User: What shape does this take?
Amino acid sequence: MIGNRDGQNPTRTAGASGQTDVAPEERCRLLGDSLRRRTLRALDPDERPVALSELRDRVADGSDSDTVAVRLHHVHLPKLDEAGLVSYDPERNVVEARPRPDWADRYLER
Assistant: This one.
């Protein structure tokens, strides 16, 4: 987890809605990755939780699906989970979209 010496994360704050917000500079790093953007677009907050294998099939776009699954599991889903954009259970390999904040929708529209 990113944090300062006090163990606090300076890039995340509580927003007015009560949801954790992500600092603007962290937003660029978080959604600057095309696989993370495709992942968020492939998940619907109104949908049931999705198995990692199903999500992999949705976002692989011709890439090696095993490599995509490993990258999702070890890198991208934990980052999206920490930012509050998805809920990822790495033991069960299940992903669930969380309601997206407006700032994330703006990035995904690009």
Q: What stands out?
A: DSSP finds five helices and five strands in the chain. The two ends are 28 Å apart (CA to CA).
